[in-house]
Every structure is written in structure tokens, then in C-alpha cells.
Amino acid sequence: MSSSKELLQSVPSVDQLARSASANVLLEKYGHDLVMESLRAVTAQFREALLNHGERARDGRSELTMIRSAQTYLETLFEPSLKSVFNLTGTVLHTNLGRAPLPPEAIEAMTVVARGASNLEFDLGKGRRGDRDVHLEQWLCRLTSAQAATTVNNNAAAVLLVLNTLALRKEVIVSRGELIEIGGSFRIPDVMARAGCKLREVGTTNRTHAADFEQAIGPKTAMLMKVHTSNYVVEGFTASVPESELAEIAHRHELPFVVDLGSGTLVDLSRYGLPHEPTVAETLANGADLVTFSGDKLLGGPQAGIIAGRSDLIDRINRNPMKRALRIDKMTIAALEAVLSLYGNPDRLAERSTTLRLLTRTQGDIEAQATRLRKLVERVLSSNLAVNTIRCQSQIGSGAQPGKLLASAGLAIRPSDGRASGKKLEKISVAFRRLPIPVIGRIEEGAFLLDLRCLEDEADFIAQLSSLGLMDVEP
Ligand SMILES: *Cc1c(COP(=O)(O)O)cnc(C)c1O
After folding, report:
1. How much is the pTM?
2. How far is the CA of 66 from the CAs of 5, 43, 61, 62, in angstroms?
3. Which of 34, 70, 315, 386 is the most exposed place for a label (fewest CB within 10 A)?
4. Smallest CA separation from ligand 1 atom 5, residue
5. Residues ≥6 apart with Cβ < 8 Å to 350
6. Where in the chain is CATH 3.40.640.10?
7. Whose CA is nearest to atom 14 of ligand 1?
8. What is the pLDDT of residues 23-34, one digit of tens each?
9. Whether the predicted pLDDT of 470 surpasses 70
10. Which CATH entry fits the domain spanning 104-352: 3.40.50.970, 3.30.565.10, 3.40.640.10, 3.40.47.10?
């Protein structure tokens, strides 16, 4: 038995390792400082293993294996944190998975402006300073019939900016049935407070009447607001005031009527066989003075918040210094312009907008894909896992139409002995998440489900299946 001191002396020094031939490749690729850091980590780990486990910690360790560990350390360091995944959750617009996938036209447009200079804020006709909003305003006005439009970082910013511009230190009247929270951090009452406005709640959770609004209007009222109850449905004994009536009340008192549509959409989705979602044009036609909505929900574009409506109000919004802090960047403008231009031809929209294409995939088409993939997936899994094609239900996501589901299909993976404990299913789910392009499914009804609605890169999906850690999923 050697003493711990003798044991530790057998660990090669960082300098010794750095001088070895195999370290050269690492030095070339990662530079001196990071290679030294990795070698210090590897030698420290070796010393700790010797102290904990004695002599046998030396087994299998050589200078070469230590360099390899250093390489793994460095590769892990440089592994991108933000990476693409397969969204097989069944929720098409998944906020945690980046919402709307962009069409190729939008990606190309982003690349072009990212690469170099552009006329972002330069008027090419007049040869002087221009305005970044002009690139989007024409399309937005054409597609919504609004007089004017402006764009910010996201819809939360749009709501904040509208409130701060039109209702600072004044009251905003909202129905109690619409005091929503979205994704934990966007709550209408909190946004109001931060925008410097006073929320005046009227009605009850399930019923609000025109008289409730009428009675609440006073000298401090700045506007009436309607918030689309995106992520929940109030059912049963309910009443709410139609937009046109709210607009009429607001206008009789010379107040603006603002609608936060949340998702909103620019076309009537029922023409593509999807549940009807209020369009921006309809909401404006109902009398809204301003409408706010997201760029990356049903619209199928990049993260953005759009405000469309009366030009005098949009002018005031654009003059608010907060607008500068909330503005969108050139890549977002490029992507959004490309997506908006697809709406120019609604007949081809369902094939060209990636989001709409995924939402309109038929169950038959998805089922055929599931049948194609079933054997391939089963082949790479251990024999005590069974793979079945199933019918399931997708949802639009991002708060759009929470009550309406889309008929879909996919694969169900479960232990073939029929004993699907939560722990075993979690193990399967972990193995899929560990793939080079992580696959995100959902656990439901005693199986790990992969809803194939959003699987378009079938070849990439299949190619990486072989790296599924077979042992990891052994129940
Ligand atoms: C999603 C949503 C928001 C927030 O929009 P982001 O673009 O995520 O900032 C605000 N209001 C409603 C009603 C929504 O549905």
C-alpha cells in the first residue's frame, strides 16, 4: 500500500500533459488558456479519485486518456447552449420551444441583412435618414386595413407601450373576466402597474355587461381595453360585451378602444379548415382604435409585437421614448417582411407558411408518416420496448384556441410487458432528449408519445436514431 502522498505524485503535471504530442491538437484548436484550464480540471479529478479510491483509480488512466478527458471538457464547453430540437410535443406554437418555425424566405432575408449594411433607417429615394418602421408598415396596413402600424420587440412590449402612451397616470377599464396571466410572467394587472396606469376592473369573472363599463367611466378614464382570453375558456353562465358595443361606448365618451388580440391572425383560418380565430382586420372593423398582437404566434413569423390602428394614436406611440427601448432589430424586420409578403397570396399561404403548413397537415398524412417510421424506431430500441402507431390530438399552442384540438397521429413507445411505470417512461423520454438533436415528446396514457405533426425533417430524425442510447432506455 502506498501512502496518499506517493499516489498523488504519480499524477502527471499540467505542464507535462501540455507538452505531450496529443495535447498539440487541442492547443491548436482551443488556445493555451482553455487547454490549461481543462488539464487542471482533469488532473484535479484524478487526484480526487486517488484519494477516494486509492490505487485502483489509476486503472485505465494514462496521459492519453487524460488528454481525451480534457478534449471532452473543451467540447462540452463549446457545445452550443441554444440548439435545435424536434418538437414532437403536439403543441405547434410551443413557447418553450421557440414558437413559430420560419419559412425559408424569412431565413434567407435574415441572412442577407445580417451579413452587411442595409437601408434599415435610410431613405434610398431621398438619400437621407429614414425610419425602420416603413419596411413593415405598408404590408401591415394592406393586410389589416389599418391606417398605420408600428412594431416592437414582442406583444408584451406592444401592450406596455400602448398603455404607457395613452393612459399614463390614468385609468384603463378592463373586464374582470380578462385579467389574464400568460406563461407566468405576463399578467395584465402587473403590466398595467409597470406602464404607470391604474387598472379599473369591472364586472365579474364570468359576466360583464355594457352598463359595467358605462358606470366605470369617469374623468380619469383614459381608455377601454379588451384582452383576448388566450389560454383559457370560460364556459357556462357567461356574458361579455361584444367589441362593437365596447367601441361604441368608448367613442361616445371620446375614449380610445384598444384590443390585445394576443395571437391574432391576418387571414380567416377557417378557409384552411382551422378553427376561426379573430383576425386583426375584423377587430379593427368592429371599431377597435388599436389592436396589438404577436409576430410569432399564428402569424408564423419572428418574435415581434405589432400595433395596428388609428394613425394619430400610432404617431403618439412612435414619439414615446420607450419605443426606442422596445424597438425590433433588423433581422426581425427582414424575417417579418418576408412572412407578411407570403400573405399577399392567401391561396398559397398554407403551403408556404411553415406554421400554417404544420397546422393544416391532415391526420391521414401524419398517420402515413407514423406507419413509415414505426419499424425504424422499433429497430433501434431495445426489444422490451414496443412501438405503436397511434391517433392523437395536437394543439395550436401559444394560447390560440385552447379548447380546439387538431386530429393528429404519432408513435407510442411503452414497455412491451405492459408495465409502464412513470419512472420507465421518464427514462425513455430522457434518452430521446439526449440525442444530438434532442427529441421532445410527451408522456401520456402510459406511453411516451411522439406526435409527428411537426416532423418535416424526416431524414435528420432517422439519421440520428442510431445514437439513441439503447442501454439507457432499457426499462
Ligand atoms: C401571448 C399573449 C401576449 C404576450 O405576447 P408575447 O408576444 O409573448 O409578448 C399578450 N397578450 C395576450 C392576450 C397573449 O395571448
Report:
1. 0.92
2. 20, 8, 7, 6
3. 315
4. 155
5. 272, 356, 357, 360
6. 104-352
7. 262
8. 999 999 999 999
9. no
10. 3.40.640.10
